[in-house]
């Protein structure tokens, strides 16, 4: 069975390679460039190199985002670049003056986009002292994005992007699959996590979606999507940007490290940086554990429904490591 799965994956990757090679032809200045896959996760990401110049080509997974949704992502990305001092990876127009290419292979349409290459390296989760300091900057970046969206709420309220709320994360047909289908679940663990899921839904329903709490966000500000350049932090990969609670950006910054003992220090540092741009209410701050656990359940869903290096690396151990977080959350909030 594993051999069959590998054969199937090889076929999928070859199709992405074919799309990438065809997409590069849409840029005359890339004639003769070297094309190399550097990541396969939600999408296929390629390093495009011609002499000393580097670019990033993203080939979107078919049927995950529509062309209109990708164009909305790019428009917001360009606006953030113009409205803030935060460095992002910028889209590059093809020869036909569009940002999104469409390539049809085997009757399936694939969309791709070319971006500027951004130098830097992701923050290191094992360097606690550095990470705590960096989270203050991450908090400032998040607040800058949120402040802009709140001030321009009417412009973005009908934007064509996905929604990340209880229904699309914890509901019956979630975007990344059901957490119950994650790895490492026993009937007892499912019952325990179901109590947590119900508590999360109840608290978020009460919390509401006022425009000061909910809007267009990056939604995947995990360490891999933040690049260090000295003390400066650059932001990449807006592929999952969509509508959610602003505090979901904090939770996503803690992706895959929610169980680490230093998380409390990271949160305090994030809040310190965030408060220099926006003020959070006591009610919002009290909701932080709810958003962190919802993100954790979302990632359990993602690991269980994906076949890539990251999902295989975390595996069922990520679910097992979640048990103390779930128990602590229920002790504090199930009856509150």
From TrEMBL:
Keywords: Kinase, Transferase. It comes from the Bacteria. Gene3D superfamilies: 3.90.1200.10, Phosphorylase Kinase, domain 1. Residues 42-276 form the Aminoglycoside phosphotransferase domain. One of its GO terms (biological process) is threonine biosynthetic process. One of its GO terms (molecular function) is homoserine kinase activity. Coiled coil: none annotated. It holds the Pfam family APH. Signal peptide: none annotated. Belongs to the pseudomonas-type ThrB family. This is Serine kinase. It comes from Lysinibacillus antri.
